[in-house]
Design a protein that fits this description.
By secondary structure, the protein is α+β, with helices and mostly antiparallel strands. The chain is 33% helix and 20% strand.
Length: 487
């Protein structure tokens, strides 16, 4: 297989999801820009998000090892072209006989029942409800409108009961359908459920997200398409739901940065005033992905979240950015009318964290002004993709002396609460330790240790709101978010 062949050449590939691996590109380097799908096609597929190299195992042997087509094919298949053609014919016939969904009506009936049942469980699960409101920015009305759900533990069902074709294990026994524990995120086509994705509570080595077999994997248009409004392109379902909640604009969720719109969606995107590409910020893949959208649609505009606010819409919301103001600035730069609600609904107050948090005695100076002019300036600085030379000249992250001093004074207490040296001092580019957080640069920042060993950061943003964020040990993830108006 292609994965073993790449690993044998000395390139370390890390498992990202159940069927996707990432690592350095054999041609242009990097860290995780090279993606491999070992189960796709016959021998797997690969693609580099930076240099664009892509293909199957035969293509890899030709490009990297310098083999001709005949040599590479015989090495991979071990058969002649004639025998390979016979194998392809038999495989296509077998795939046709054992398609994934054998009964669409049965699948939809079972899926609808699961969505309704898990939604009722979520409304009773206070901890997950609080997490959705404080960590993901969703209101209770949005949670109900999108029928989000919660499953406490893994469940295993018979595939035929779900209208799915049987699959056999190596020992000949039928495999069960996994319905994993975690957040249930349904997507819809009209009023019918077209797909379900799970955000697993215990991902392990299988990836954070899992799509229910039989789900529609095509991009999802949230709400009804309005040709008078621009379309915002986002990656994840939760980011799309949050953006739609705040702005009410056309939102197309790709589900994956490499996913592409359908033919019908192509026509809708071409007819709208502007296609605002707002995928997650990614230095390795951003240029290649943005290039495809710009070449495909003449009305496409690069409208990603400026890096000082985070890599996606939820992270920007955490850092105090108003998504309404971001949307207005993006529309202003694209030269179109945003088409927001005629009367914008007020943003609901976010729930207070239950952690023991001490508030600053005096309100600190404004932090991160979020107005349309400053956002437009930030957008202009990223209106063109960075070239490789500019990225190479970037200076590495610097240690903040305030952070070093505070961590040194509280090192014993933090280690006793379960913090590891990697979580505190890691210099990895995509997963930095606490010492590298930009929050330390705020002169008004107040830092303390809360319940469960959580590090509590309190500061004030540009609108005069006191924001509290916490990082938990063994996860290094933002766990809670408290927002209060300045009095």
């Amino acid at each position: 297989m292609i994965l073993e062949r790449i690993a044998a050449l000395g390139f370390s590939m890390k498992r990202m999801t159940a069927g996707e691996y990432a690592g350095p590109c054999p041609w242009c380097g990097g860290r995780d820009r090279f993606r491999v799908w070992p189960d796709k096609s016959n021998s797997g597929r690969y693609w580099c998000r930076q240099c664009g190299k892509s293909g199957d195992e035969i293509q890899f042997l030709g490009d990297y090892e310098g083999m001709n087509f005949k040599e590479a094919r015989e090495l991979v298949t071990g058969t002649s072209l004639y025998m390979q053609g016979k194998q392809v014919q038999r495989r296509r016939k077998r795939d046709q006989e054992t398609k994934t969904v054998t009964s669409v009506s049965t699948w939809q009936q079972m899926t609808n029942q699961m969505v309704e049942a898990t939604h009722e469980k979520l409304l009773k699960h206070k901890e997950t409800l609080a997490w959705l409101k404080t960590d993901r920015g969703l209101t209770e009305k949005t949670i109900k409108d999108f029928r989000l759900g919660w499953l406490e533990r893994n469940e295993y069902r018979k595939r035929e009961e779900w209208g799915l074709a049987n699959k056999l294990k190596e020992d000949g026994k039928p495999t069960k359908l996994l319905i994993p524990a975690g957040l249930v995120i349904p997507s819809f086509s009209g009023k019918a459920v077209s797909g379900v994705k799970f955000r697993r509570s215990n991902p392990g080595d299988y990836g954070r997200y899992y799509a229910l077999p039989g789900s529609d994997i095509q991009p999802w248009f949230i709400g009804l398409y309005d040709p008078s409004k621009p379309v915002v392109i986002v990656e994840s379902e939760l980011d799309g739901i949050l953006l739609y909640q705040e702005t009410g604009t056309n939102t197309l969720v790709l589900r994956s940065a490499t996913n592409r719109p359908t033919l019908e969606q192509d026509k809708q995107l071409s007819a709208c005033p502007a296609v605002m590409v707002a995928l997650d910020t990614d230095e390795a893949g951003g240029k290649q992905t943005w290039k495809w959208w710009m070449e495909k649609f003449k009305n496409a505009k690069r409208s990603i979240i400026p890096k000082r606010w985070g890599k996606d819409h939820t992270e920007a919301w955490h850092n105090g950015l108003s998504l309404v103001e971001w949307y207005e600035a993006a529309c202003n730069l694209a030269g179109v009318t945003g088409g927001l609600y005629e009367k914008q609904q007020p943003v609901p107050a976010r729930e207070e964290s239950k952690n023991d948090i001490s508030e600053p005695e005096e309100p600190p100076a404004p932090f991160h002004p979020t107005n349309s002019s400053s956002l437009a300036t930030a957008f202009r600085s990223i209106s063109q993709p960075l070239d490789r030379k500019a990225r190479q000249q970037r200076k590495p992250a610097k240690l903040n002396l305030k952070a070093v001093k505070w961590l040194k004074e509280n090192r014993a207490a933090l280690r006793a609460q379960g913090w590891t040296p990697q979580e505190l001092y890691r210099a990895n580019r995509s997963k930095k330790g606490i010492v590298f957080l930009r929050l330390w640069n705020n002169d008004s920042l107040d830092v303390s240790i809360g319940k469960g060993g959580r590090i509590v950061f309190s500061f004030t943003n540009g609108t005069g709101q006191i924001i509290t964020q916490t990082a938990a040990p063994q996860s290094n993830l933002w766990a809670n978010h408290k927002l209060e108006r300045k009095k």
